Amino acid sequence: MGQAVSPAGSNRANSTRALALFLCLTQLTWAQQVGAPAGTPASIDPVRPVGRIYKRPYEPATIPPVRLGNSDRLRSLIRAGKLYLTPHDAIALALENNIDIEVARYTPISLAWQLERSSAGGALPGVPSGASQASSVTNGQGVLGSQAAAGVAGGGGSSGGNAGNATISQVGPVVQTLDPSIQETSTFAHRTALQANATQSITQALVDDSRTHSATYQEGFLTGGSVSLGFKDSYLNENSPTDALNPSVAQSLSLSIQHNLFQGRGIAVNERNIVVARNNLAMSDLGFRTTVSRTVATVLNSYWTLVNDYEDLKSKQEALDTARQFVAENQRRVDLGALAPIDLVTSKSQLATAVLDLVNSQTSLSQDELQLKNLISRTGAMDPILTGVSIVPTGTVTIPEVDDTPAIKVLVAKSFANRSDLQSDQVSLKNTEISNIGTRNGLLPSAQGFAQLSNAGLAGNGHVVNGQTPSLVGGAGTALAQVFGRDYPTEAIGVFASAALHNRQAQADFGIDQLQLRQSQLTTGETRNQVEVDVTNSVVALRQARARYEAAHANLKLQQELLDGERKKFELGESTSFNVVQQQRDLAAARASELSAIVTYQSARINLDSITGTIIESSGITLAEAKTGRVSQ
After folding, report:
1. N or C, where is the chain less crowded by C-beta within 10 Å?
2. Is residue 455 part of a domain?
3. For residue 375, what are the CA distances in angstroms to 99, 146, 294, 368, 443?
4. 3-42 burial string, b = 16+ CB within 10 Å, else e?
5. Contact 220, 258 (CB under 8 A)
6. b or e along 239-257 (b: 16 or more beta carbons within 10 Å of the residue's beta carbon)?
C-alpha cells in the first residue's frame, strides 16, 4: 500500500526539484565562466602567420595583448559588499589574477622562440653583400673586363674583394647559419669611363651598358661546414671598336664547399646552443612551478594572517566590551559610595588601553587585507570591483589532536623528488657543461678546408678585329652550353689555417669557465645538503608551534577562570578593582598568545610544504590549472 501525498507536499517536492535543477544549471554556468578573464584574450600564445609558403616566413607572429582584467570568479564571490573567501578561493584567484604568475607564463613561450632561434644557427660576420659582387664586370668581358683580368684599375667598376678570408677569419666556435638562404642581385648600369690611354679601347670615353644577375644558395651544417652554389649572368654592350664580341654575354656557375678541421668541427660543438635552449625549455616548467609554489605560500600566509586579524579584532572587541562593562559597574559603585574614586580611574585606564588595542587591531587588519587584495587581483587593490569591499575569510585553522608529521628521512626524500628549484640546479649544471664544450673547442687552432669548382662561358656578336675572326659567336644559349659543357672549368682546393702562439685568451676563457663550473657544483651540493637542515628545522618549528599552542590554549582557559573568580571576589568585596583589571589584561594577553600560536603553527605547516615541494598538491590544485589560469573547482 502506498502512502498518499498531500497537494502541499507535492508542491513542496516539485519546488525542491526545481530549486535543485536551478542550482545545478547555475553551478554549471558558473563553472564554465569562472576563470575566463573578462574582456581579455583567452591565451597569450603567439599566433604564427598563415598563408602561402613564399610569404609566410616574412610575416611577424601575432602577439596577443597582455591580460589586464580579472577573472569572473572575483566578481562572483562578492556579496553585499563583502568578498567571502575560503583558502581554496584565495589560491584560485591568485592563479587566475596574480601578476607574478602571469609574468611566469611568458617564460616557456619565450624559451620556445629561443630554441627556434638557436636551431637556425648564427650568422657569420664578414660575409660580403651580394650587391658588391654583382656590380663588377666579369673578367675578360669587354675593355673593363680585360683590364680587370690584366690587373689594371678600371674607371668605375667595383670589385667584391676576397670573400674567403673575411669569412674564414671568424670561423670557430661560432655556429654556422643552418637555415638555407637564397640571394639574388640584379644590377642595371650605364657607365662612362674616361680612358687615359686609348690604345686598347680606341676611344677617349668608354661607354657601356651592362646588366648583371647573380643568384646564390647558401646553407650551413652542424658538422661545421657550409656549401654555396652561385650562378651569374652578365650582359655588356660597349662603344669600343676593339671588342671581338659586342654585345657579349658571360655566364658562370660555381660551387664552393668549406669545412672546419679543428676549431668549430663536430656536431657537439655546433649543437650546444640548441641543446641548451632545449633544456631551458624543458626546465621552464620547473621555474614556473617554483613561481607558483612561492605565490601559493605567500597567499596562504596572507590569508591565515587575515584570519588571525579577525580573531584578534574579535578578541579586542570582547576585551573592550568587558572593560566598558566594568567601568559602568565601578561608576555605579562609586555613585553609591561603595567604591573609592581611585578604583574608577584604574578601570578607565584599562578601558583606554582596550580602545587603543582595538584601533591597532583594526589598522593591522586593513593593512593585511590590502596585501591580500593585491595578491588576488591583477589590477591591485584599487580595482573598482574591490574598492570599498572587505574580505571575509571563512576558513578556520584546525590543529590535529596528534602529531601526524612523517619522519624526517621521508620528508627529505620527498624534497629531493618534488623540489623544482633543486631540479633546476641540476639542469643548469648540465647546461653549463654543454656550453663549456665551446670554450674547450676554442683552444684548438683554426683551420678550414675548402674546395671550389666553377664553369664559365662567354658569347656574343662577333666582329673582325685586326684580321682575326672570333670563335665564341652566339648568344646566351651558347654561353650556357659552355658552362654546363665545362668548356672552361676552374678548380681549386686548399686549406686556410691560423694558430695563436701563446693562445692565452682561449686558455683563460676555458679556465674561467671550468672554475665557475666547479663553484656551481659546490653551491648545488651545498644547497642539497641544506635541504636536510631545512626540513629538520621546519619539523622542529612545527612541533614547537603545536606545543606553544597547547600551552597557550591551556593558559587561556586558566586566565578565564581566574578572571571569573576575581570578579566574583570583587562583587563580594574581597578584591580590588586593580586586581580585576590585572586579570583582564592577563586574559587579553592569553588570547593574543593563543592566536599567535595558531598562526605560527599554520605558517610552519605552509613552510614545511614549501620545503618539501608539495604545497601545490596539498593546496588541491594542479600545475596545468596554474598554466592556463583557470581553476575548475
Report:
1. N
2. yes
3. 8, 78, 12, 11, 51
4. eeeeeeeeeeeeeeeeeeeeeeeeeeeeeeebbbbeebee
5. no
6. bbebbbbbbbbbbbbbebe
- Name which of 236, 233, 245, 150 is nearest 199 in CA terms: 150
* Count of structural domains within the chain: 1
Residue 309 identity: D
Average pLDDT, rounded, for the chain: 80
Please give the grid coordinates belonging to residue 243.
Answer: 671588342
- Is 184 a domain residue? yes
The position carrying cell 544549471 is 25
Q: By mean pLDDT, which of 124-128, 215-219, 231-235, 545-549 is the weakest?
A: 124-128
Residue 217: pLDDT band by 50, 70, 90 thresholds?
very high
List, edge to edge, every strand of the sheet that includes 181-194. 181-194, 205-220, 225-238, 245-260, 446-462, 488-498
Residue 555 lies in a domain: no
Give the burial class of 484: count Cβ atoms within 10 A of its Cβ; 0-12 exposed, 13-18 middle, 19 or more buried: exposed
> Global pTM?
0.69
Are 223 and 267 spatial neighbours (Cβ–Cβ below 8 Å)? yes
Domain span at 470: 130-170+179-220+225-263+446-498
Q: Please give the single-letter amino acid code of residue 621.
A: I
Residues with Cβ < 8 Å from 48, sequence gap 6 or more?
61
* 472 located within any domain: yes
Helix (H, G, I), strand (E, B) or coil at 184: strand
* Phi and psi torsions of 312, nearest 5°: -65, -40
